[in-house]
Amino acid sequence: MAKRVLVTGGAGFIGSNIADELIRRGYGVTVIDSLVTGEKKNINPKALFIKGDVRNPRDIAKCFAKKIDVIFHIAGCASTIKSFDDPAADLNTNVLGTVNIINAAIKHRVPRLLYASSMTAYGVPDSIPVRETMGTRPIAYYGITKYAAERYVLATGERKDIGFRLNTTAFRMFNVYGRRQSLTNPYQGVVSIFIGNVARGETVTVFGDGKQSRDYVHISDVANAWIGAINNPESYGQTFNLGSGIRVSVNRLIDIILKNFGRSRKNHRIVYKPARPGDQRHMQADISKARALLKWKPGTVFAEGLRDVIEWAKGN
Ligand SMILES: NC(=O)c1ccc[n+]([C@@H]2O[C@H](COP(=O)([O-])OP(=O)(O)OC[C@H]3O[C@@H](n4cnc5c(N)ncnc54)[C@H](O)[C@@H]3O)[C@@H](O)[C@H]2O)c1
Hints:
Strand order of the largest sheet: 3-2-1-4-5-6-11
Radius of gyration: 19 Å
Helix content: 25-40%
Order of helices and strands: EHEEHEHHEHEEHEEEHEEHEHH
CATH superfamily of the largest domain: NAD(P)-binding Rossmann-like Domain
CATH topology of the largest domain: Rossmann fold
Structural class: alpha/beta
CATH architecture of the largest domain: 3-Layer(aba) Sandwich
Bound molecules: nicotinamide-adenine-dinucleotide
CATH class of the largest domain: Alpha Beta
Mean pLDDT: 96
């Protein structure tokens, strides 16, 4: 019988795209999502949907009516800014929510747990590109909770007292972009925020001088890494960077987006405001570990991936 994967956060940007790909490949999927930022229309109709909150163990228990073989724990507060505005909410969802998922995995003897960690775990890196062996000193509250949850997951994978082996993997995802990333939520990814601004003819606001750079990885590449790792023992107990390995400045990103809309800085207003707390200056992933152990490589060229999101945005 096909394996069943519980996708937490399966109504959100990353979770819903991964759930679609799991279903396309023949997996059964159960989704739990509180719909706080996720949307019902993102949930694959073939998935079993439980509306619930990972902060609440009773909601999580409902997901186990059908046997779960794998958990993809993707639900989370995904915003650095919100983590400073409301640190307790960020802490509860990202850390307590993860602890609740781990408890459920142990109770139901789920042998496989994969976790959505973040490049924010690194904070200000010693050098770039960053490798998984480098120090983790998160500077955003969000990065602290994502890293703490990562440690809970991986430390549980080391436990020998739970009566079975829980094989864990954490993905430190860099800037993921693609269809369904919210065009209206100012707390989501910078790619979709800027595309939404330009599409609606609004001023684009840059925090900082725009020379800061990010590593953008397409959601289809991210989905391939997650799903490809399910049955790969080389990934057990491991952390992987998921990025493209290429760095693009925020200014360059804006220029590419403007060009795709047939606009330029001459006829579209860009304003620069002071950098916000927790902002990392430059980020770039070293992806040699994922290449070697997962046999993974990002296949989407940034310009093409961006064009695809813009096409989707124009239809939305
Ligand atoms: N987008 C990125 O570039 C990126 C990078 C690294 C890590 N991540 C992590 O990936 C995950 C998904 O991010 P995303 O960009 O898809 O954001 P998203 O907001 O679209 O997805 C998060 C989903 O989790 C749900 N959720 C939030 N709190 C919940 C709760 N308490 N109980 C149940 N469901 C809850 C939301 O409704 C939403 O559907 C997050 O954990 C985020 O920290 C994202």
